[in-house]
Specification:
Strand content: under 5%
Oligomer: single chain
Largest sheet: none
Structural class: mainly alpha
Shape: elongated
Helix content: 55-70%
Radius of gyration: 47 Å
Distance between the termini: 151 Å
């Protein structure tokens, strides 16, 4: 009986060993960096790194643009305040010193009726 148990035990160990061998080969193919999932994971990891760098650069650019826009907005607000002050100051100027808004336009230049250039013969010829 012990002999039969030892034969079954050895057969089970050989079967488990063969199974581990096949599983190890499959795992190596699975993790192969060129063809398997390992390669796909490596490529995706590189792409994630590239996208992270691109995202950081975009965030820096957006922050700089926001700062520039904020400065431009502040300058525009200051200019608007100055224009409002100038418009308010114009209300204090007497109307006689302001130009007439409906004044006739200046006359257009007239075309000359005589030619500008003439040809003359110089000398004793005909």
């Amino acid at each position: 009986m012990d002999l039969i148990a030892d034969i079954f035990l050895a057969a089970g160990a050989l079967g488990a060993g063969f199974y581990c061998f096949v599983l190890g080969r499959r795992l190596n193919r699975f993790n192969n960096l060129e063809k398997g999932v390992g390669g796909a994971v490596a490529v995706l990891s590189a792409q994630v790194d590239d996208l992270t760098k691109t995202l950081e650069a975009a965030q820096r650019t957006a922050a700089e643009s926001a700062e520039t826009l904020s400065d431009t907005t502040q300058r525009a607000a200051e200019m608007a305040r100055r224009l409002e002050l100038q418009m308010a100051a114009l209300h204090d100027v007497p109307a006689a010193s302001l130009p007439d808004p409906v004044a006739p336009p200046p006359p257009e230049p007239q075309e000359p009726t005589e030619p500008i250039f003439t040809r003359r013969r110089v000398g004793g010829g005909q």
